[in-house]
Amino acid sequence: MDGGVTSDADRVSDFEIPEDEDWVHDSFSQLIQEQCHYPYDVIEMTPLDLEEEGRGQITPPVTSDSSLTDLCISDDVECLEADRDVPQQTDPLIEERWSSDTLRVLSSMPSRTIGRSRGAIISQYCNRTMQLRRRRQSRPSIQHFPRSARPSICGYGVETDATDFEEEENKRERLVNNLQNLSAGDRVRMLRAMPLSLSEKKELRMLVLNKAEHSLSQNLIPCCSQLKYYIIIALRHGWYGWLSFLSSLQLWQTALKRVSGRFGTGVLSYFVFLRTLLFFNIFLFLVTGLLLVVPQAISHPHHDQDISARSSWGLEVLTGAGYFSHSLLYYGYYNNQTLQTGHSCPASRNRMSCSSGLSYNMPLVYFFTIFTAFFITCIILVYSMSKSFGQSFRIDKSKGLLAIKVFSSWDFKVIKKSSVKLQRANFGTQLKELVAEVNRQEQKISVLQRLFRLFIHMLAWILCLGSTLACVLAVYYFSEHKHGDLRSRSHTASSDSLLEEVSLLAVPVVVSSINLLLPGFFNVVSWMEKYDSPSVLNYISISRNLLLKVSVLGVLCYHWLGRVASDPQSLGLECWESFVGQELYRFLLMDFIFILLDTFFGEFLWRVFSQRALKRKRKPVFDIARNVLELIYGQTLAWLGVLFSPLLPAVQIIKLLFLFYMKKVSLMMNCQASGKPWRACQMTTIFITLLCFPGFLGATVCVTYTMWSMTPSAGCGPFRGLKNMFEAGKRWVHDLAAVNPDLHWLASAHSYLVENPLFLFLCAGIFLIVIYFHSQVVDGQRKIIELLQEQIENEGEDKKFLITRLQDIHERKRRVTPRRVKGGIEDSSYS
Fold this sequence. Notes:
Layout: H1 3-12, H2 18-22, H3 28-35, H4 47-58, E1 68-74, E2 78-83, H5 100-107, H6 110-113, H7 118-135, H8 162-181, H9 184-193, H10 198-218, H11 223-248, H12 253-263, H13 265-299, H14 316-319, E3 338-339, E4 344-345, E5 360-361, H15 362-392, H16 398-408, H17 417-439, H18 447-491, H19 497-503, H20 506-529, H21 534-564, H22 576-612, H23 624-641, H24 648-670, H25 683-709, H26 727-739, H27 745-755, H28 757-830
Antiparallel strand pairs: 1-2, 3-4, 3-5
Family: Belongs to the TMC family.
Main location: membrane
Coiled coil: 424-451
């Protein structure tokens, strides 16, 4: 039976449930007792039968050539012919020839009868449909249905003559009539629950539909009913077409299938994660663009900044300075006025006097837009992480998944040749991963080898931590040096503007070089450790790259908020927020450029050099850990910069789009699949977790600290003249309370919910508690499933034990009976 049908039956059917199965044969002894009630199929072993069997063993002459014994299990059901000398190739449980009684019991077990007799199945479900029709009015419970969802073939013979064939046809006709009288939902559930092949189910369904159409043509149906019938069919077809259209709109679906089919789920997880980040940035861009950028662009404010500065070398694209310094890209361009439909009210005036017309308080909107964007992003991340935890950390044994993949995973609805090729490649790669996981065994090593491996791992971690610390110190001192250089240039007039713009790229170039070169050193150290499992190697690489990225970002945040924002006058900055936004723009752009260089030199040129110079067919393997941490690093920069540069998510969107197509082309041309297939069942969960806690949490802390504690610039931005950015909301609440005394409670609510940090800590604690409880629920479900699987294995062992004991008892009786027969023959001859 098709896998899709089986899964649908498990989800939809209201009749096939485990409790109903427990009604059938809750013990093996009950099964044997049930079989003894059928006189036509189960023959009780009486002494006379044993005597005849003993005579049958003595009388015929036994030859060594070809003596066959016919073991007839039941009348017209199953006959087994076996050679006495040649061993049979049967079930693994059967290590020797079982007795006829044992074989009868085995043949009548529910697991052995499915699919052997269509007549039994049709008769069983004919009775079930009849009972369903009779009890449909009262909506009966499951206990009112027949005890077994798996029919037994006891009492039914194989269709060997015309009588049996006519009987089966009568049963089929009754089943079709009963199915026709059921409702559409019950009919679908009943067909899905039948243990028949897909072709037989389709045949039954066509018979029911043809008979229904014939009856409809014979009966006179009112026009209203026909119109209603056609409208329902049209709406259903339209809904299915809409769902199919939405499924076809999934971004990069075909490309992801090609990547999965050729390189496996590990590389696929990188591209899926990239698509997730793209959706996050699209959301940020829509929120900031619609609420901040568009209103500010429409208002056409008159700024007193000098916008005549231009870069003759066009370096403003790389540095973000020059023309871009006074554009919608940065914080300093936005004003602190309340925008009106016909005019604008400056911040110094009473805003309530300008309430005529449609007003738009830019400081308040700027504050709540950033707050809302981060809050919704946090909710989406927590939900995605909880959902990913539930999907990835469920209990799933590789052997069971392998059986499911082999027998019930092919989608027979796919008929297009290109789609079949993609599905076949994807299916084959997944089978390789599952087989590799099943065959993977832990190597038994001695104590000395374990000590040596431990020493190698400790040495590798010391090297990685030491190199990370050295790079972090280098970034710290170099940024301090450039900070002092910028301070000295602010006090002395310099005519070389080109050198000044190029010097702005020094720190981003150094940081991007470290992010490019040090992961290569980590890979060399990992090669020295010689990990057996590719998944463990990826997790170790991710942890080391994550430590590097987080340390560098921590130093940079201290440089921006601790040095630049604390004393902007010493650097000659009128708007330190725009300067920080320019820095984040430069870091984001340099990161993209160095990724391009790494793709070209590290993958393309290395592949050409390896094939042309070294004469090797081997290509480099896609480095999942480094590429994923580069995505998290870039996304953290985008979250940090959305406060200082509202259009920075648009830059990140362009970067991610270029990255996807560039990485896909490079992957197909320059890389090869891993030599050791491995299944990345938890990679997406780990990526989302790393994106949430080190990335998003760190960016949220920095942005919250900036809005709460840092003093805004006095000459630019929507928060000029305020003590901090939170004060914009506080002033707005007090103005509302002054105009309308009934809203005085807003001031208290704002002070307790927004200004008080306890509320933020409570919200963060609630999110963490939700994640913790969800993980505990998943862990409890995993333990329950493990216990159930162990119980199933124990019940299987119990059945094997009982069958073996039954065979032993029969063999002992069999040995005793010939002795009695022989003694009776001797007594009769003596007499």
